[in-house]
Amino acid sequence: MLASLPPLAHALEASVIIPCKNERDNLAFLIDEVGTALEGRSFELIIVDDGSDDDTDVLLKDYAKTRPWLRHLRHEKSCGQSNAVRTGLLHAQGEFIATLDGDGQNDPSFFPQMIDALKAGGPDHALAAGQRMKRTDGAIKMASSRLANTVRQAMLKDNTRDSGCGLKVVRRQVFLNLPFFESWHRFLPALVVREGLKVVHIDVIDRGRSHGTSKYGIFDRLWVGIVDLFGVLWLRKRRKKIPTISEINLTADNNN
């Protein structure tokens, strides 16, 4: 099992992280969708702006006037989605870290179900992973994604049919201890399983992109992912023993 980190003082239940670059128009409705989904719970929404030049900062400054749970972190230069997620994670205050893409295709209304599934499963249930149903992507993108998922599953055996879905909820302590590398967000189920922890799969609805264009091409998703795949396979093979840890009470006999 992963080593425990000290609990946060006055921790929130959830921190939602949205990594984005030039997604101003999609954020305009995503922000309030998150607020509606988590109404009645303690949460924060962290927008990690990965070097946008579309006035995302103007939108967020205006929204923050009436949404005290909204935070804005910015990369002055674009560093990629994985680094944006990690930036949000390192600044998050929630017990559970929830992620979704900034393109508007992920519906945050599934977050309560995902958080509750981890709570019901207990401490060894570390990740709730969305699995997209009735995907709206084009035929070529769908075919490349299906191929990538098939190859990944055959090699990593993470029992996840859709590792690329942006809707995920991870226990903060677990997330912070996972090895970081570019594109790690695509391999979270395998990295969690590597630690002897469990993944809960939740079927979610995929939506079409409302505004803007995708930042990824077919080769970004497929061939670059294959290089990463072999790295994760190596990490999995190097994790041969998972210790069972118990703390010994050193003062138990001192009262006799």
Automatic annotation (TrEMBL):
InterPro entries: Glyco_trans_2-like, Glycosyltransferase_2, Nucleotide-diphossugar_trans
Domain Glycosyltransferase 2-like: 15-175
UniProt cross-references to CDD domains, sorted A to Z: DPM_DPG-synthase_like
Keywords, alphabetical: Cell membrane, Glycosyltransferase, Lipopolysaccharide biosynthesis, Membrane, Transferase, Transmembrane, Transmembrane helix
Keyword Membrane set for record: yes
Example GO BP: lipopolysaccharide biosynthetic process
UniProt GO cellular component terms: plasma membrane
GO molecular function, one term: undecaprenyl-phosphate 4-deoxy-4-formamido-L-arabinose transferase activity
Pfam families in UniProt: Glycos_transf_2 (PF00535)
Protein name: Dolichol-phosphate mannosyltransferase
Native species: Cohaesibacter celericrescens
